[in-house]
Amino acid sequence: MIAIDGITVKFGGVTALSDISVKLDAPVVGIIGPNGAGKTTFLNVFSGFIRPRAGCITAFDTDLLRMAPYLRARWGLRRSFQMEQVVDELTVEDNVRVVLDPLGLGGRERDHAVAAALDFTGIAGLRSAATAELDSFQRRMTELARCAVGSPRILLLDEPGAGFAETETAHLRQVIAGMHDFNGAMTLLIDHDVDLIQTTCPMTMVLDFGSLIAFGATDDVLRNDRVRAVYLGVEEIR
To answer: What number of other Cβ atoms are within 10 A of residue 220's Cβ?
Structure first.
């Protein structure tokens, strides 16, 4: 569904991504690697915050890099960030509803889509709450409801699981794993929680110093000697 071909990003003399080429066709794809490996830069290319020096991304037969960022959002690209981006002045429901504004849906259709997203993420009971009053996990789930609402095609999640309790992480895991069945979207998931990656991502790619060093079935990738050396701190077998 997503073909990445030769994506290269340079900041001055620093190569942040080096000729990344991979085809992604799993409902959830993990992206792991040490700090500074290029993971967030990779998502920034998808969402249009960074223009690559070379390469292309084709998703659902659409050349994403030829579209302006706002058109990618209208097309169905959704994004969360390491620091959540909810609007404190709005209620939970309105934070989710605003995502549908550019899509031209009727009132009843919008109401149904918002209700379904809140239900799916488990925060329907908070729909009238001001997001400024929520705890960090509830705010994160509001963000995931914004990603899930309507008919997105690609979700980009940048470390959504950081800093939560075990029960909260379990709920987050359930939501991410169920996203494709809920709305048909593909999810690209960055996280340092190996258990979250292993339990939600059938396929995983590994970046190190801007290069793709492994890609495949998640269990196989996590057993890869080079990945264990680079990411898990295990000495590489030679």
So the answer is: 13
pTM beyond 0.85: yes
pLDDT digit string (tens) for 2-13?
Answer: 999 999 999 998
Q: Which residue has the higher pLDDT, 101 or 120?
A: 120
CB 120 within 8 A of CB 166: no
Residues facing residue 156 across a β-bridge: 79, 188
Work out the number of other CB atoms within 10 angstroms of the CB of residue 194.
Answer: 15
CA distance 104 to 111: 13
Q: What is the pLDDT of residue 228?
A: 86
Asked if residue 18 lies in contact with residue 59, where contact means CB atoms within 8 angstroms, the answer is no
Question: What structural domains does the chain harbor?
Answer: 1-75+197-233 (3.40.50.300), 86-146 (no CATH)
Helix boundaries (H) for 81-155: 92-97, 107-121, 136-148
Give dist(CA 198, CA 192) in Å, integer.
11
